[in-house]
Amino acid sequence: MEDWKRELKKQYEEIPVPGEARKRIEEGIQMAKEEKKRKNGAVIWLKRAGETAVAAVAAITVLVNVSPTAAQAMEQIPVIGSIAQVVTFRTYEDHSGRGEANVEIPQIEGEGQAPAANRDMEEYADSLIEAYESEIRASEGQGNYSLDSTYDVVFENDKYVCIRINTTVTMASGTQFVKIFTADKATGQTVSLMELVGNDEAMLTAISDNIKEQMREQMAADENVIYFLDSDMPDEDFKGLDGDESFYFSENGELIITFGEYEVAPGYMGAVEFVIPETVTGNLAG
């Protein structure tokens, strides 16, 4: 088994993808992750909305602070509402030279204010587009490069709506990225895994341990299943969750953790996910 792991790791590291191109894509993904971590999404939106919007929101803030009645009314305004409609906000397409791109950018439409999660999803899509355009400029029409990004609503209940972004970047080989935005319907904010578990490090560790247990069980049952765990290259092994991983819920409300291609397994296994039983997490879906 160790030989299998070592050989597949070697094959992965030798994939003939231009280093600069892969670096740009990974930087784009990282930029999106860092943006999502910003907890004051409303402030980010306001900075870009212009002086008129800032003045209007400032006036509302004053009203809320001086009037308990107004504050109570504001609390009752639904940001998304019980039913969220997810639509394609815009589509980016490019078919020039040897580059080809198709990026669908989703938006949540609800009963009240525009949710901050929309801004998070748009910024993520923009980072993918920026990386694509940078690579096209750098390659000067040489080689083939494609970007395909689509979305699906993978879960919704009265509390959350989860939108999965599936992105495939193809250069010398293809790489699949998975990003899931889970929006809290009451606030409109994107919820991180760490926020979902209440910043409970012990809970995050318990989920990590369950994932490692599932990895070991799968590898023991099938020699063709390999994860970066318990290998002779421990520095490359899966250490545990950091609280920024993508997640959604099953129909039964179980937590599902997702990983993109190459994150925790060789590329041939594609994007992988793990269903965490409620005996580990309790009821997180609400």
TrEMBL record:
Superkingdom of the source species: Bacteria
Database matches in Pfam families: DUF3298 (PF11738)
Residue intervals of the DUF3298 domain: 199-277
InterPro entries associated with the record: DUF3298, PdaC/RsiV-like_sf
Name of the protein described by the UniProt record: RsiV family protein
